[in-house]
Amino acid sequence: MSEAERMESAQGSDQQKSSDLELFEQYLSEGIDLDMPGRGDLREGVIVEIRPTELLVNVGSKRDGVVPQSDLAKLDPEFVKNLREGQTVDVVVAKQPEDDSVFLLSIADAQQKRDWLIAEQLLESGEITTRKVVGFNKGGLTVEFNHLRGFVPASHVIDMPRNLSEDQRRDEFEGHIGHEMRLKVIEVDPKRRRLVMSQMLAEREYRSAQREQLFKHLAVGSVVTGVVRSMRPFGAFVDIGGVDGLLHVSEIGFGNINHPREALQVGQEIEVQVIRMDADNQRVALSRKRLLANPWDGIEQRYAVGSIVPATITRLADFGAFAELEPGVEGLIHISEIADIAVAEPLKVVHPGDKVMVKVLRVDPKRQRIGLSIRQASEAPQA
Predict the structure, then answer these.
(1) In contact, 308 and 359? CB cutoff 8 Å
(2) Residues 246, 286 contacting (CB under 8 angstroms)
(3) DSSP class of 232
(4) Which end of the chain is more exposed for a tag (fewer CB within 10 A), N or C?
(5) DSSP assignment, residue 382?
(6) How does 12-50 read in b/e, with b if 16+ C-beta sit within 10 Å?
(7) Using DSSP, how many helices (H) and how many strands (E) does the chain show?
(8) Roughly how many angstroms between the first and final C-alpha of the chain, as a whole number?
């Protein structure tokens, strides 16, 4: 570029700067507001004056705005009661000023608009949020989301039974009201006022993260606190912090337990011990029995040989009958010790559930065996 060309370019640049400066000065002299809020804008404002039926709020422009009584009536009364002059509040421009009028502002709309922004952030980040169930409709649950309401479709509610009647479905939904649940935002549409959330996806992600952490610190022998989530005839599934461990029916307690419901309830908090682990398949076997006092400890003192004690027949076998002395302590009554030799079929003399008196014949704590006799108990002289 020649010297003449450089001088011409510099002159052009100076002229442009001069033109921009003149335009800016014109804006100022004519009172044009460069930061004029538009309708629907969300702004932070400062309460200038609290009037009997409205608030005067400055939103950073040359004109103040008014929050009318009709808008204040939509707000939590406690929130309105605590408003103070000089306080910063979120407002939405409901109407721009005409001539010498003021902005018409809305705090109620601002609260909801702020919540829609929060919902969009949760949708983008995938973050899990915890919300309380406040109601339901035919399709699912409604949850609080600050000043909005979120919707959780029935298909996204965990452990929701299928093929329920209308009454059963309503009862199932009512049981969730007042409870908090972990949720993920899966749809945000402010125009249609749709805020859809999923408990199923949130729990899946949460439990996956919990499982990963749990298996890093869990070991065979660890004692943990869990919550009974469900029961089957073979055992109970216990949530120990993101992992459902299996508590087999034989590991629930020392008594004769045929089904977990005889000793446990869904939702019950219990202490269990880890007895087996399969980290690859994320499976854990638990025992409650091993944390309880062993009823066979001190058995010889409680059931001395020769003593006569009450017992309950629990089951029959070809060779005799088993009787429970106390939960976890069962003894054998040999067929020859059930009744007098004159009885043709001794096993027909007793039935499961019968209360009988038995004589203690033998006690073997190591093998956890006790020999009992109904016949000798009945032959013993009465005191």
Answers:
(1) yes
(2) yes
(3) E
(4) C
(5) P
(6) eeeeeeeeeeeeeeeeeeeeeeeebbeeeeebebebeee
(7) 8, 20
(8) 131
CATH of the domain at 244: 2.40.50.140
Could you tell me if 374 and 304 lie in one domain? yes
Q: Nearest Cα to 251, choosing from 220, 229, 281, 274? A: 274
Statement: the pTM of the whole predicted model exceeds 0.70? no
Asked if residue 1 belongs to a domain, the reply is no
86 CB neighbour count, 10 Å cutoff: 7
Within 10 angstroms of residue 352's Cβ, the number of other Cβ atoms is: 12
Q: How far apart are CA 273 and CA 308, in angstroms?
A: 37
Distances (CA, A) of 131 to 9, 176, 179, 297, 306: 63, 12, 8, 49, 64
> 349: closest CA among 381, 374, 366, 314?
374
Give a yes or no: residue 208 inside a domain.
no
Which of 104, 29, 27, 26 has its CA nearest to residue 63? 104
Tokens 């093929």 identify what position? 163
Q: What is the pLDDT of residues 222-254, one digit of tens each?
A: 999 999 999 999 999 999 987 889 999 999 998
Cβ neighbours of residue 153 closer than 8 Å, sequence gap 6 or more: 139, 140, 196, 198
- Domain range for residue 162? 131-203
Burial bucket for residue 333 (CB in 10 Å: 0-12, 13-18, 19+): buried
Which residue, 129, 110, 285, 245, is CA-closest to 195? 129
Would you give the DSSP letter of residue 152?
E
Q: Helix, strand or coil for residue 63? A: coil
For residue 153, count CB atoms less than 10 angstroms from its CB and return exposed for 0-12, middle for 13-18, buried for 19 or more.
Answer: middle
Amino acid at 172: E
Strands 235-239, 42-50: pairing is unpaired
Q: Is residue 313 part of a domain?
A: yes
Q: Determine the Cα–Cα distance for residues 311 and 291; give it in Å rounded to an integer.
A: 25
**Domains of the chain: total:** 4
pLDDT digits (tens, 9 = 90+) for 254-301: 877 889 999 999 999 999 999 999 888 888 999 999 998 888 889 999
Q: Are 333 and 374 in contact (CB under 8 A)?
A: yes
